[in-house]
Each structure stands twice: as C-alpha cells, then as structure tokens.
Specification:
It is built from five helices and no strands. By secondary structure, the protein is an all-alpha fold. The protein has one domain: Ferritin, CATH 1.20.1260. The longest helix has 29 residues. The mean pLDDT is 95.
Length: 176
Amino acid sequence: MGINFEIHKRAGFSDPSPYPEIRVEAPNQAYLEMIMDDYAGIVSEFTAINQYLYHYFETKKYDDLREMFESIAINEMLHMEILAKLINLLGGRPFFRGGASTRGNDWSPRFVYYGCNICDMLHADLNSEFKAIKNYQEHIRLIDDKYIKELLERIILDERVHVEHLKIAIENYCLS
C-alpha cells in the first residue's frame, strides 16, 4: 500500500511538484541513522508536527495562523510518513528516536519550542524550518543514494513553502 500524498497536502502549503517514488538503492545503516534524525531527532518532522500543533492550539483568536499551523503540521506528517518508509527500506524500524542528535535516544517533548507569544512562536518555527533545510542539505551531501537524495530534495521544496508562509505571518503580526 502506497502513501496517499494528496491527503497530506493543503492547497498553497506545500510545493505542487510530485513526490518521487519511495525507494532506496540498498539497505544502509549509516543512512538509516541520518534519516532517523530527520524523522524523530531534535530538529525533525516529529518535533515540527508537535510544535506546529501546539502553536495551533494556542492561537485560538487568529484563524489565519491556526490554518497555517495546522496545514504545515499536516504536510510535516507526510514527510514523516515518507521518512518512516525510507527507514523500513534502509533496514530499520520507525521508532520515535533520533540518530546522532539524540545519541540514539527516544524523541522527547523537550525538543518542542512552545514559545511565549505569537511572534516568539513564529520566529521559532521559521528558525526550525531553516535548521531542517540545513540538515536535509547536509544529509543529501553525505548520502550516496540517488533515490534518497531525490526524496530529501523534494521535502526541502515543501519546507521552503513553509518558510515563505512564516515570513509573511511574521511580517503581518510582528513587524507592525
């Protein structure tokens, strides 16, 4: 059974490009550990989902921000599902643990930045997206598997869309 990519996409909150097929050249423990960090490390899809959901819960008076936080969280769920499949194909199991960033330890809610106010939340989310992009770019550089590289490059396209939404929200709520 494949992933239903469309169920995890909200119009305007992800790149319109198709996702490549989820496959790997061969199982690889080193690549698995890098992907585990993207999956449930300190800066990870699991952390992003929980951080965006918390920010969604805390912005009850701001429907546009709630829609953005919820839509981005749903897109991050797709990324997490893609990474879970990669983890399986690389020879692992998608436990909620990181790789090097957590020294292989379990994911922790301490990784979530809750924020003090809307602007603090937005800036933290923007910073997290930049860190995620940087991590994916580093993993693309280190991984010698064309299929994994294609998937990570595609995920970066979505992360860049998230960056643009967050910049607009910061402009609307924090720079006036």
